[in-house]
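Record now logged underneath.
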Amino acid sequence: MRNPQNKNDTAANAEKPVRLQKFLAACGVASRRRCEILIAEGRVRINGALVTEMGTTINPATDEVRLNGAVVRPPDSGLVYYLLNKPRGYLVTASDQRGRRTIYEILGAIRERVVPVGRLDMDSEGLLLLTNDGELAHRLMHPSYRVEKEYEVVVRGSISTAAISRLRKGLPLDGKVTQPAKVQLLGKDPNGSRLRITITEGRKRQVRRMMDAVGHSVISLRRVREGALQLGSLLSGKCRPLEANEIELLKHETGLGRPK
């Protein structure tokens, strides 16, 4: 799904030094931020030598990089992008010590090594992008690129205008005020309220914690959009490759290209 490059350009790029965490992310190991943690934990070696410094650079053409003893290489089959409609009850992780179900149990048809872009907690559902494009994943998750994430949320109780106003203006979480959210009231009764909430950050369990902060616990939460990518009619538990135009639009939103 990526455009073939000129062979001479590819060879030249391979000789350029690249930061270790960027190389690991580009190989589909994890997000760049997570790769920095792996390095700091002493799980990465270059040519047999343990590395923990963030400023370390490598030459992908000549240096051997190992993570937990396994050689890390760029994906042979090119960059791939998949959209999963994550069901409730699944963790967004490769394994769980408590034996709980993970999304990788329903990704058997995907042969490439892919990582999730962001997280959805176990009780949440909806759109989850998976890819081995580390640079795109990094930009989609970084708040400086302000990529919108849209959620359909059902909360307990009849939400007030004042509570919606607080969500829209931003409220403190962990000592830092959230970015203003777009909030649309879809309907309510004494037992519950339905909302569409759009944010540009990705703090842990952010939407749930925002709703708790205004006095309304979440009953259900579903992500329906990330940037230009829409969940659409994809069934729960199903996965599909992204269309070429969807990839182009995501890259355009994060400064990696222009839509055709």
